[in-house]
Amino acid sequence: MRVRTPIIALAVLLLSSPPAVAAPQTPTPQTHVVVIDKMKFGTVPASVRIGDRILWVNKDLFRHTATAKDGSFDVDLAPGARATSIVRKAGALLVNCRYHPAMRATLKVSA
Ligand SMILES: [Cu+2]
Fold first, then answer.
1. pLDDT tens profile 33-56
2. Ligand 1 centroid vs 91 CA: distance in angstroms?
3. CA dihedral of residues 98, 100, 102, 105 (deg, nearest 10)
4. Is the overall model pTM greater than 0.85, yes or no?
5. Residue 18 burial by Cβ neighbours in a 10 Å radius (0-12, 13-18, 19+)
6. Ligand 1 (ion): which residues have CB within 5 A?
7. Residue 91 — φ and ψ, nearest 5°?
8. Per-residue pLDDT averaged across 97-108, rounded?
9. Domains, in order of start, for the chain
10. CA 20, CA 24: separation in Å to the nearest integer?
11. Fewer Cβ atoms within 10 Å of its own Cβ: the N or the C terminal residue of the chain?
């Protein structure tokens, strides 16, 4: 029982430590869903902020990607698959599918 007490004390210390990241004025990141179906990206969210997540959901019968033109993310989605990417830059973010270049979407990202 000599070892257990220091371990418990350490655990309590770690659990009671303040969070490492504190940004009181930053809005909580949101997760936006974009559905891919019938060879198209569905409605994109009207307002995306840096740090938000996009949950890409492939409801199509075909494999697609959500590939940011600026290289910031590239998710490959088998039929029925879903994956999340994080938006890291402000501005108009062009997204397309590597397999079907005619599939395009533009996310308007604000700071
Ligand atoms: Cu595609």
1. 999 999 999 999 998 999 999 999
2. 24
3. -50
4. no
5. exposed
6. 64, 97, 99-100, 103
7. 120, -175
8. 97
9. 26-110 (2.60.40.420)
10. 13
11. N
